[in-house]
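Fill-in record for Short-chain dehydrogenase TIC 32, chloroplastic.
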Amino acid sequence: MWVFGWTGESGFSARSTAEQVTTGIDGTGLTAIVTGASCGLGLETTRVLALRGVQVVMAVRNVDAGYEARHSIMDGIPTAKLEVMRLDLSSLASVRNFASEFVSTGLPLNILINNAGIMACPFSLSEDNIELQFATNHLGHFLLTNLLLETMKRTAHASNREGRIVILGSLAHIFTYKGGIRFERLNDESGYFGMSAYGQSKLANILHAKELARRLQEDGVNISVNSLHPGSIVTNLLRHHSVVNGLANLFVKFALKNAEQGAATSCYLALHPQVKGVTGKHFMDCNLAEPNSQGKDMKLAKKLWEFSLSLIHQART
């Protein structure tokens, strides 16, 4: 991390904000979906994309909170083009409904930002009987991306502009369970540890980006896919850890990023011309970064892809 404002090759650092990294970029004519757009990084990402002229569909679990967020953005940007649509990523049925409704609007899709997530929550299963963090952080986004891919391909072809898929991973992927992904013990409550389950889901995000990028490159599709670590940020992800959250808020000015800085890499990957044609990579502080060895394991990525497809199939039967 470019901790003290030191800049990387991109010219940006950990202290760069989303507005700063998109200065001078015109996103007029582009359409984006941002998941988890009603608060935290998703809200700031949405605001800055709208500021640059992008039409943004705010995919949110709580529609009332989504409309409040929309109003807050439009108070500062009256010309913002924002739509609110319901999406509960922990429910595969909700993901399918969202994708169907979006496709029915006839809107193009240039940018997909898989931002939403939950962190280190107590053990529970989703309505599809899948460990909740894996279901929400990875599997819901995996299905969403697959369902929207044809729309993105058509948009990229018709506009002759590169589509961009941005997937939020985390440095926390290094804290996953031994072996990376517990394919045979995904729902094992007895061996569950909240932070390891979070790390597992974030490793899955990174591997998803790599395998999808490989597949799209192989097919000659003009869509890039990259993952990122947004940095250490105080958001409501820490709501299950009140003591940690309190300490984090106390020291945020000195050690952690704020939302404006935390959203920078997402906005950079979504809009900046520096990353045109760059795909299958991992970023931090708007600069290239390296995940751990598991995050670069293409055999593991392929196995995860097939495993994810099998979970989705099982949920429908």
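KEY FINDING: Residues 205 and 269 are 16 Å apart (CA to CA).
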